[in-house]
Structure formats: structure tokens, C-alpha cells
Specification:
By secondary structure, the chain is mostly beta strands. Helices cover 0% and strands 33% of the residues. It is built from no helices and 7 strands. The protein has a 4-stranded mixed sheet, with no helix packed on it. Strands 3-2-7 form a 3-stranded mixed sheet, with no helix packed on it. The N and C termini lie far apart (38 Å). 8% of the residues are buried.
């Protein structure tokens, strides 16, 4: 398990927590935990934001299909 402390946690419900999150199997299982379970790897994320489910929906793969023309231009 991992614990991220001192982060600004923005949940999918729109609430903001300024404490900690416990992560198990790549999923957040607790937010605003008062006690960190024994054996957790602890990461101090002071001033950072933790946003579950956030993905980069706009990216370019850097592929340019010169021979195809504008249809193949992903860069």
C-alpha cells in the first residue's frame, strides 16, 4: 500500500480534501485518513494535487505520415 500525505485531493464528487489518501492496488481506498496503516510507503505531496481518474484526453503521438498527406499528420 501507498499513502500520499499533504496533497490537495480533488474527488470525483467535487469535494476537496487537504490531508492524505491511501492507495491499494492502484486505487484510492481512503481519503482524509487520520491514521496511515502500518507498512505503507509514504509520499509527501505538499502543495501538489491528486485527482483520481484524470487522464490526458488530448495528446499527439508524434507520428507524421508524410506520404499520406494531411490525413496522416498526427504531429
Amino acid at each position: 500500500m501507498k499513502a500520499i500525505i499533504n496533497a490537495n485531493i480533488l474527488t470525483m464528487t467535487g469535494k476537496t480534501h487537504e490531508n492524505s489518501a491511501v492507495i491499494y492496488d492502484e486505487k484510492i481506498i481512503a481519503v482524509g485518513a487520520d491514521e496511515i496503516p502500518a507498512g505503507c510507503e509514504v509520499y509527501n505531496a505538499k502543495g501538489a494535487f491528486l485527482m483520481p481518474g484524470l487522464i490526458d484526453a488530448h495528446c499527439h503521438l508524434g507520428l507524421v505520415g508524410d506520404s499520406v498527406g494531411v490525413e496522416g499528420d498526427d504531429g
